[in-house]
Amino acid sequence: MFRTLLFLSALISGWTFADTRTVTDSSGRVVEVPATVERVYAAGPPASIVTYMLAPEVLTGWPRAHHAYERPYIAEAYRNLPVTGRLTGRGSTANLELVIGLKPDLILDFGSIRSTYVSLADRTQAQTGIPYLLIDGRFENTPTALRLLGDVFGVPERAEELAQYTENLFSELDTFLAEVPEEQRPRVYLARGPEGLETGVAGSINTEIIERAGGRNVADYGPELARQRNLVSMSIEEVLDLDPDIILTWDRQFYDQVYSNPLWAPVRAVQNKKVYFAPSAPFGWIDRPPSINRLMGLKWLTGLFYPDRFQFDLETEVRNFYRLFYQVEVSDSDLAQLIAWSRY
Hints:
- The protein is an alpha/beta fold.
- It has 14 helices and eleven strands.
- It has helices at about 1-10, 45-55, 95-100, 115-130, 140-155, 155-175, 210, 225-230, 235-240, 250-255, 270, 295-305, 315-325, 330-340; strands at about 20-25, 30-35, 40, 105-110, 130-135, 185-190, 200, 215, 230-235, 245-250, 275.
- The strands form four sheets. The protein has a four-stranded parallel β-sheet. Strands 3-4-5 form a three-stranded parallel β-sheet, with helices on both faces. The chain has a two-stranded antiparallel sheet with strand order 1-2.
- The protein is globular and about 65 Å long.
């Protein structure tokens, strides 16, 4: 520990930025950041995605290595960035020596704004001397977050383009859903993991996409639990009691066996063949992680929930989104593979 502190102290000494300005992040922290940001360390997967979408050239690396099936959907110039680990969330793998060694101008976290994340940001900034921004990653904050980060990264025009896309999408869905009574909205369960028995509670960042797309999350335990936890473990008996109309999953192992598993057979969604596999390349359409990538899943889910009333060309939508946000042209074969199991 003593040697680590000496190492950090040596690296931090003399760490100054010639020109700076102050930015107020989503937690209310006032942070002094460089006027020109050229290197950003993403504290977790959600932050790496929003940074890549806005200004990929400033991203120091990815929190994890990409799987082979994910790589075609990321611009070639950025597929092989180094694996830099993560400071936040499940399975944190980075340490402060590694972060400082990358010499970022800024550390960015994007997602939930909770006291644990605020404490981590304060502690990390104090120990490293590197500015650390914590930005709210919920859907409702997306346009604001894009514009704020676009300004920080020096790409305001790019940020405005993505923010306007987002606002137009929200407006389109709001107009449609305004005419759908609550009692006519499907009851939906998100099945996470190979057993399908982990889910996100209603109101959590992991499942807010369900409500935003016009569904009702059956794992509704009230706002108090949602403020404390994003994910909960379920028993099959609890799922049977909830009896959802629709089941969503991004776990292929669960999807491949759910229709043949006798434990799941009594569930309404299984009986009616309404278990749907969400695409997850290069990042999930509904979660995994809960970042800007979920925008692609919003329109897809609304069409899935209301196939007779909300229709659009999925292939065109995917091509346009991937071109704009991921900066990649999707080939016909990659497109077919991506959406093979997502048809209604």
